[in-house]
Amino acid sequence: MIGYLDLVLRLVIWFLLTADFRPANIIIGVCVALVLPRNRTLTAALKDWLHVLWEILVAIPQAYFEAVEIMLRPHAKEDIVMEHVKPNRTPGLIFLDIFLITFTPKTIVLKYHENGLYEVHRVRRRQQAKQGKRAKVKRINS
User: Fold this and answer.
1) What is the pTM of this model?
2) Does residue 139 contact residue 85 with C-beta atoms inside 8 Å?
3) Which residues neighbour 107 within 8 Å (Cβ) at sequence distance 6 or greater?
4) Helices (H), the chain
5) pLDDT tens track of the chain, all 142 residues?
């Protein structure tokens, strides 16, 4: 089942890049998705995939809320925090995690470190910045 989810993710990325749904491009996309290397020793649980997809669905209204909030209230404080990658993540799930973090307007992943860390840039309001030390420590340890 998980192999199919990886294949579907690769096809979705292919169609987003090409924006072409002609039969020839679909065949090329399936061939590319099958030829790309994959790590068969790491298999993601279906529960992890469903959890990430649910988080993406929840992030959509959050992204709109944050966009309006940035327009109405100034966000002058910036910081860079290191967040841990959840354990036993496949490359597909890591991609979806990065997509989820970057999808909201207040955060963007600057770099993925191979030792299991995301470097995340955040913008915040000044009131939130006063509580920044606690939030930063909490984010790193979570």
Assistant:
1) 0.62
2) no
3) 101, 120, 121, 122
4) 2-18, 23-35, 46-72, 91-103, 126-130, 132-141
5) 447 777 888 888 888 888 888 999 999 988 888 887 765 544 456 677 778 888 888 888 999 999 999 889 888 889 999 999 888 787 878 888 888 898 889 999 999 998 889 999 999 887 655 555 544 443 443 3
